[in-house]
């Protein structure tokens, strides 16, 4: 539709800008970090301020990295892959972080799932961002349940559910807008990156949430057609 076209043009423009600006910011940032570290080691009485400076510089790095991942599509490599491979690799990345905050990650994969056609790294990024949000929504522990099944219309459904803090109704439609975050150390770019990647894979991402109860993220992707 017209609206989707405009949206995807906007996203690709953002992507190109992110790539250019990101490169320009990374180099001076590396120098700043290096010299801050050096000064920190020479000024023992000002450690407190240097720690704040390093923290803030790290935050800028995080934002730049996350923003630059918007700009990657031209490096993308689409091939046949499986949801099982993608999800399992994300779980192994997040296992330690989850255990530390008392979060269990449960996986329920339907048997004989069809394959998908996509970029493994980008799809991992999507699942990673969503599962991370789930973990971060449960500071006192809980459960992230990941399931994948075939839908009847040649699509796969991946659902990621947590029983965390949830999203207030008035915020739900805004979530995914750039820089919208409710976290002290958040960037508000995670879901925006997810939306962009899911778009380029002809998929769909939807959030369902009840404040105080939890959040469910549903991602659908086209199942790969077996040519015969
Ligand atoms: P960030 O995680 O850096 O804040 P995201 O784009 O990943 O940025 O998420 C944006 C916001 O959406 C979060 O700050 C949070 O308020 C809300 N959110 C996303 N996922 C969840 C979730 N599973 N549970 C509760 N809130 C969520
Ligand atoms: Mg996030």
Automatic annotation (TrEMBL):
<feature type="domain" description="Histidine kinase">
    <location>
        <begin position="20"/>
        <end position="225"/>
    </location>
</feature>
<protein>
    <recommendedName>
        <fullName>histidine kinase</fullName>
    </recommendedName>
</protein>
